[in-house]
Amino acid sequence: MSEEVAIRLPEATESAALLTLLEQLQGESDTFVLADAADRMTAAQEAEQLRQIQHSSRHLLLVASLGRELLGVCSISPTTQGHVGELGVAVLQNYWHQGIGTALVDEALYWAETASSLDAVGLTVQTRNVAAVKLYEKLGFERTDMPTETVTTAEGEQVTAVQMVFPIQPASD
């Protein structure tokens, strides 16, 4: 029987593997950029951050794994607006186009709707990443009225991006 990809919360004991995954993802994709890439985190610091995230209603971190191997990651982090979380997702290139990114985002949106204190989840996506734009639209994200913007890739290239938002419906009683 073959193993299935699991979408789950990472364990604090996986902090070193998670840091390795994040570094590999940044090297494989010009659309995935770590916000604090210059501030390298130790495995112990990452483990403590994972523990804190697990107790937050505004932060989420999920991983996709196959056995003990981490294949992808999805996060929701609060923005300066506080009530809006920013979504980030990346999957190792060997596992692209297998539904893993969709499963990660779908699970993150379920958390946002059922367990978070957020009013919406937003993201910035490069317009040249057509597959990602289609995925987000399929999952219920809508383009905002904000004009397109220019973002800088890890290689320093200037590319066009749009803002998208997933409004969270209040739970009905």
UniProtKB/TrEMBL annotation:
Q: Which SUPFAM superfamilies match?
A: Acyl-CoA N-acyltransferases (Nat)
The yes or no answer to whether the keyword Transferase is present is yes
**Keyword vocabulary terms for this entry:** Transferase
Q: Which InterPro entries match?
A: Acyl_CoA_acyltransferase, GNAT_dom
Q: Which Pfam families match?
A: Acetyltransf_1
Q: Name one GO molecular function term.
A: acyltransferase activity, transferring groups other than amino-acyl groups
Positions of the N-acetyltransferase domain: 7-169
Which protein is depicted? Acetyltransferase
